[in-house]
Input
Amino acid sequence: MITIPIYDLLVLPGVTFFFKQDMFPKDKIAPENIGEDILFVMLKTGKAQEEITPEDIYPIGVAGKIESIDEEGSVKITATERVKISDVRSSDGGFTADAERFPETDDIPAQEEKERFDKIKKELMDFAKGFQWGIWARSMIYHWKSFAEAACALSGYMNISWEEKYSLLSTDSRRERCDMLEQAFYELMEIFRVSEEAETAQKSSNEQLYRESALKKQIEFLQQQLDDMHPENISDVRRFEKKIQEAGMNEEARKEAEKVLNRMKQEGKDSHEYGMLYDYLDFITTLSWKNEETPEIDLKEAEEILDEDHYGLKKVKERIIQQLAVMALNKQQSGSILLFVGAPGTGKTSIGQSIARALHRKYVRVSLGGVRDEAEIRGHRRTYVGAMPGRIMEGMKRCGAQNPVVVLDEVDKLTKDYGGDPSSALLEVLDPEQNNSFTDHYMNVPYDLSNVLFVCTANTTDTIPEPLLNRMEVIQFPGYTAIEKFHIARRHLLPKAMKSMGIKAQNLRVTDEAIARIIEEYTAEAGVRGLKKQMDVLCRYAAVKLVKGEQKSITVSEKRVPEFLGSNGIRHERILEEPQAGVVTGLAWTMAGGEILFIETSFTKGSGKVLITGQLGDVMKESAQIAITLVKSLYPDCAEKFEKNDLHIHVPSGAVPKDGPSAGITLVTALSSLVTGKCASPEIAMTGEVSLRGGVMPIGGLPEKLMAAQRAGVKRVFIPWDNREDLKDVADEVKEKLTIIPVKKVQDVLEQVLK
Output
C-alpha cells in the first residue's frame, strides 16, 4: 500500500480529491499505480519525509484509492474509510505502515444529516451572494453533496488549527462531527462578514481621505497660481505655511511652529496677540535649520588671510591654524573654545573676522559688555510683554547660517543681578556636549549650535567665573612693540584712514620718521586703537588742506607731525636724569599695556610711623609692610632709623589706583637705598614679588612690562628667576635693547644695584 504523509490538509472519507502529480515524492505515483490502494497518514508537525519517525504520526489515518491520472498529471484519489495506523517502518528512503479499518459511529439518521447539510448549504449560497466572488463560489457550493465535501473544500478558509482539523477526522461520532462542522461554517461566514464590513469602512474612510487630499492639492495649486500672479497679496498665514515647509526644522520645532500658526489663523489680524504670534513665526522661520555643507579648509589660504589682515601675533596665529587643522581632519566643528585675552586694540575681535573669512563662513559679533540679565543670553519667555530672543539666537538669525563664526565680545564684563547670572547661561552655549540642543526661552524648542565656531574675547581673566573659564582655552594677545606698531600703521591703519577720508595715495605721503614719532609721542597703549585715531586726525587735517587747494600733494615729515596732530602729545614716564637715594624704578602692568613707575621713600623726624600714599591697593600696602620687615632684617644696624623717624612711601600719579604684589622687590630696593644712602641707577628697573624669606617670586605681564622699560630708556631689568620661560613671549627687538637679569634672592638685586 502506498503511504503518503500529509500535514495541515483535511482529508475525510467519502471525498474525492484531485492532486498534481508533482506534489508526491518522485516515482511514488505513476500510471501503473491506478487502481491501487493509498494510505494517508497524518503528521503531528511538518517534517521532511526522511526525518519522520513513528512518534511524529497520529494514530488515525485515511485509506483511499487511486482512480485515475490524466495527461496533465492530475491524480484523482477517492478517500474511502478511516483506518488505524500500526507498525510504521522505513522502506526505500520513505516508510510504510499497516492499517486496519476503524469505522465511525453512525449515530445520526441519514435524513437528519441531509436536512442539516441542505440548511447550511442554503445559508452558504445566500452568504456568497453578497461578494464579488459569489458567482464562482455558488457554483462550487451547488455541487457539494455532504458535510465532508464542504469541510474539505473550505478547510483552507476556516479559522481552525491543524489539531482541530485532525479532531474532525478522529471523532468517532458522525453527529459530533456534524456539530463541529456546522459551528466552523457559521464562524467562517461571520468572520467574512466582519472582514467585509471592516474593509468597506476602511475603503470609505480612505476614499474620504483621498478626496480630502485631492481637494487640498487642488486648492494649494490654485492658491500657488494666485500667489505667483499677485505676490504682493500673499497672506501672512500662507507665507508662513510656505516658510515652515521649506525651513527644514526638526520635528519639535515644526510642531511648535504649526501650533502657533494655527493659533494665528484662529485669532485673526484684529487680535491683540496677532503681532506677537507674527514676530515669533517670522523669527523661527528666518533661522537656518538645515545642516550646511562645510567647504574644505585650506590651511595655506588661512595662513595667508591671517598674515594679510594682522601683523605679528605669531603664536596666536599658530594656535588658530592648529584649531583649523583639527576641524579639517574631523570634518566637523571640534576643538577648544578659544578665549583671546589682551589689552584693547590688540586685534582680538578683528581676528575673529579673519577666521570667518578663512573658513568661508558668516561672521557674527555678540557684545556681552554690561549684560547683567540671564534673559539676554537665553531670551525671554513669550508670556512676557515685549519678549525677545537672546543675543545668541538673534545673532544666528542675523547671519542666516547654521555654522557661522560667533565672536562673544567682552565676556569679562558680564555682571549679575536679581535677573540671574548670564555667565551661567553661557555655560550651555559654550559646552560642546550640551549646545547641540540649546533651548532659547523665546523659541521654546531646541536648536543645534554644535556647528558654530565660538571665539571669546576679554581684557582680563580675573573677572570671568571659574566654571566658564574652564570651558575655554586662554590665548594671550601681547601688546605690540614700536616696530610692530610701525608696520601695522604703514600696512593697515594709514591706507584705511586715507580711503575712508577719500584721499588718494598721490595726494598724501607720510614718512617713516613721522609714523615713528606719532607712535612714540602720541600713543601710550599696548594696542593700536589710539594710533588709528591719530592716523584719522592726520588724514582729516590733510583733507582740509587738499579741499582748500592749499596743496595738491602733502608730505608729512617728522617735523610737521605737531602741525597735524598738535603739540600736546602723550607724556610717557622717562627714567630719572639723576640718581637719588630712596628712589627706584619699578614696572607695572596696566589694561593698556605696561608702564614704569617710581617708588619714592623718605625719612622725617618722628616716632616710627609709616605713611603710604599714591592710592595703593591692599595687596601693594602689604608688600610695603613686607619690604619694611625685610629691610630691617637685612640691615639690623639701621633698624633704629625706622624707630626714630617716620617713613613715607609714595608712588607718583596719585590719581591712578595701583595694586598688585609685583612691586615688592622695588620697595625693598628703595628702602635699602634709603637706609644705606646708596643710590640706584635710573637705568635699572625691576619687578617681582618678595617673601619674608627674601625670595623673589614670579609675576605676570612680563612682556608688557619689558616693553614699557625699553620705551622709557631703561637698560637693565631684574626679573624673577621663575619668569625665565616667559622671555620667549617677549619681542626680540625688546630683548636686544635690554639686559635682562633673572634673580632668585633679594640680596642678588641689592648686591648689583647698591654698590
In short: The longest strand covers residues 74-91. The radius of gyration is 50 Å.
